[in-house]
Structures are given as structure tokens and as C-alpha cells.
Amino acid sequence: MKSFLRFMKPGDWAVLLAFAAATAALAPVAFQGGAAEKAVVRRDGVVVAELPLTQARRIEVQGALGTSVIEVQPGRARVAADPGPRQYCVRQGWLSQPNAIAICAPSHISLSIAGRASSHDSLAY
Amino acid sequence: MTLSPIELVPTADDRRIARYAAAAIALSVVEAAIPMPLPGVKPGLANIIILVVLARYGWRDAVWVSLLRVVAGSLLIGQFLAPGFFLSLAGALASLIVLGLAMHLPARLFGPVSQSLIAAFAHIAGQLAVARLWLVPHDGLFYLLPFFALAALLFGLANGLAAAKLLEETRPA
Known about the structure:
The complex is a heterodimer. Chain A is 21% helix and 36% strand. Chain A is of the alpha+beta class. Chain A folds into two domains: 2-31; 36-115, N-utilization substance G protein NusG, insert domain (mini-chromosome maintenance (MCM) complex, domain 2, Sandwich). In chain A, a hairpin with a 2-residue loop joins strand 4 and strand 5 (76-81). Chain B has one domain (12-169): Orthogonal Bundle (Arp2/3 complex 21 kDa subunit ARPC3), CATH 1.10.1760. Helix content of chain B is 69%, strand content 0%. Classes of the chains: A alpha+beta, B mainly alpha. Chains A and B meet through helix 1 of A and helix 5 and helix 6 of B.
């Protein structure tokens, strides 16, 4: 192994270090996994609202049982209220990961987080 | 043997290029059989030959050997005109262009290792450019960039050292 070092000229070390630094600088790209960008509200699979996760707001969505309330805050979203009997989607709380989804099955409403890219196909709790 | 009115007489240049191209093609066929964790990541062993040809016979011969390698190598593994062929061609052309520039770096300071690293990074740049523009028109492709860069760093270094060793061992008389 050591004998190979004699092939390394000063400029070779410089080039190697430059490319190694460039590779190290690129490394974070592999681990950012895509930031959450917007909340997507669907009824019966049809998109009824797309809300950017940059500003806080509340919207009301008409579901099969009545009115559901979707709340968005910067970087996260939740189903704040839903007329469903068991309240699973409400109790799921805030969603912030890309592709996380809260499904209010009785109301036919779903809330999912969309990101640029994700390491997961979906996240359910 | 019937006499043909058309006779192709291979010159010494042709024979030399064919010999090196054969070595490069053999290496690319061999490495096609090596399983790799990520599609598109390959050691690029044929580039050792390209570097040796570049150092010994200059850029024109290196271009010939490299392009013959891409075309004949893809024919042998059944990838001719498949997407992989165009990625390979784009990478080879990008490498050859930067090698044409890098070969003028002062030889006292920069050896085959520099050329190999520069060519390896040009190779992934050319490949990714074609892939992004044509095959996968989505920025998600660039998430693969760190892995390609790491492969280019490691294999570029290894191939450069191998080329330096070959050039030292078989100095032409």
C-alpha cells in the first residue's frame, strides 16, 4: 500500500483534497430527505385544498358527516376537529414529516403532508 | 481467398488503437458482471487504459480508444443504444474533454492520479447532465449526487494509481 504513495505528486494531493472536500460538502444532500412543503386535504381521494406550510391558517372542509377543521401552522398541520365517532385523525395530532397522513375514514377526509422528496412511501401512526 | 478490389490496410496506428481498445473493452465487460449497490456506479476500470493511452500516445488516441470502448463494450453486453449507452457516451465525452485540458497541467506536479480524479468527476457530471435533461427530468435525481461523487472519488483515485503503476512498469523502450 505504501508503495503506491510514490505515485502521488504534490498536485495530485491537492486535486484529491479538493474533490474530497467537494464530496464532503455534497454529503448533506443525501440526508435532508426533503422538507415538508404543503398540507394536502382530500375528500374521497379528490384534492380539495393544498395549504403551504409557511403560514398559519384554519380551513373548514365538508366531509361525509359534517364539517372538519384543518389547522396549519408553520411546518406542521393537523385535523383540529372532525365529526367522526372515534376521533382517530384528530388524536393523531400534528403532522410534520413528508408523506405523513391522517385519515378521517367516517368523514371520507384525509390530511397528508407533501414534501419535495422523502425516504418513506408513507407514514402512519 | 478471393481478391477484393477494396483493400483496407490497417496502419500501425490502427493496430495500436485496436489493441488498447480491446483491453479497455475487456475491462468494461468484466466490470459489467460486478454487482454494484447503486445503478450507474461502476469502477470504470477501462479508464485505466484510457489514461495509459493518453500518457503514451496523446489525446487523439485516447479519444479513439474511449469511443471504441463505449460502442463495442455496449454491443457486447447488449446495451447498445439503450439508456445506459447514452449515459456511458456522455460520461466518456465529458471525461475526454476535460482530459484534453488536464493533460496540459505541469507533469512535475500533476500525475495520472489528478487526471483520473478530474476525469471521474467529469464523467459523473456528463452522465448526470444527460440523465437530468433526458432520462429522469426531475431534480430528485440530484439526491444521488453524493453517492456518485463518493464513487468517483474512490474509483478515480484507485484507477489513477493503477494507471501510474502500469505506466511505470511498462515504460515504452
